[in-house]
Write a structure and sequence with these properties.
The chain folds into two domains: 2-126, no CATH class; 134-306, no CATH class. The chain is 30% helix and 33% strand. The chain has four helices and 14 strands. α1 runs antiparallel to α2 and α3 runs parallel beside α4 (211-224). 35% of the residues are buried.
Length: 308
């Protein structure tokens, strides 16, 4: 009787042990395969997000190039181009990238599950810049800007008629970003204003012609453009030193203006000398970093953000 009881207990223990081992390895398999799926999903997410942001760099002006760039970035990040779907929509202001990847499981096959699937969709949009750093201390009144057209950004002492309207006597197109003074102005024009500007900001104008600081700053920017081929409105590097972000302004008082937008211009030269020097640049459409708002008017300078 005792022997039978011991035998039964040993048998039960073996069964329990076997079930325990099965459950342990089943749990281990679940953890391992879940980790594998999580790793692949994270990798896929990073690749898709990178590709959609890369593609958005070409919007809204070059939608076909946006699709190609998104696919190329996806491939460079380890995705199969055949597993990537790219769509440009909303008047070429948004781009969506979707990718699905089949992952072979390590232990799931024991339970009859050979593989799992991970998927990620990302959407990016471009919209008008409403807040930006690195602006030039120049202001231009609202135009219907035309791509490649040359505009006067700062006039000489005898050329105020070239501005859309003289905002104040003694104003030649310069802004007092961060305070008045020739040194502050020259530093801002050379390197870009270190602070941030936003639509709606009220800015003091910089009175006086300050032609000397203007010429030194623009000459520096031109000399720093060492790109080959030389940057033109049709082909330029986005980090070109000759590109300047210019606030689009409207007068609100005799010596104050309000920012209503931002544009980008490619500087060609400082023309004239002394009091007759002026700065002209060609209007370009491009993308930059900064705060964006789809409801704001687009003056050619746009930014990108991930919205999904």
């Amino acid at each position: 009787m005792v022997n039978k009881l011991l035998t039964d207990e040993r048998g039960s223990a073996i069964v329990i042990f076997a079930l325990g081992v099965t459950m342990f390895f089943g749990f281990l398999s679940f953890v391992a395969d879940s980790g594998l799926l999580f790793f692949n999903e994270a990798k896929l997410t990073n690749a898709v997000d990178a590709s959609v942001l890369a593609g958005a760099q070409e919007l809204p002006y070059y939608p076909s190039a946006a699709v190609v760039k998104a696919i190329n970035y996806a491939a460079a990040n380890g995705l199969d181009a055949n597993e990537v779907d790219v769509e440009v929509f909303d008047s070429n202001k948004k781009i969506k990238v979707t990718s699905t990847k089949n992952v072979k499981l390590l232990f799931g096959k024991v339970l009859g599950i050979e593989s799992g699937e991970v998927e990620h969709t990302a959407v990016a949009e471009v919209a008008a810049i409403v807040g930006v750093g690195g602006a030039a201390p120049l202001g231009i009144e609202k135009h219907e800007f035309e791509f490649g057209q040359q505009y006067t950004l700062k006039v000489g002492a005898g050329d105020t008629s070239e501005l859309e309207g003289e905002i104040s006597p003694g104003w030649f197109g310069a802004l007092a970003l961060g305070g008045p003074g020739a040194n502050t102005y020259e530093n801002n024009l050379t390197y870009g204003y270190s602070g941030n500007l936003k639509i709606g900001d009220i800015i003091d104008i910089q009175t006086g012609n300050i032609s000397g600081p203007t010429k030194k700053a623009i000459d520096y920017r031109i000399a720093e453009d060492k790109h080959t081929p030389y940057c033109t409105v049709d082909h330029f590097a986005r980090n070109c030193s000759r590109l300047i972000k210019v606030p689009v302004i409207e007068p609100v008082a005799q010596k104050e203006v309000k920012i209503i937008g931002f544009s980008m211009f490619l500087i060609d030269d400082v023309t004239g000398s002394g009091n007759e020097s002026y700065v002209k640049g060609k209007f370009v459409k491009t993308i930059t970093s900064g705060e964006i708002d789809p409801s704001s008017q687009d003056f050619g300078l746009v930014g990108v953000r991930l919205i999904q």
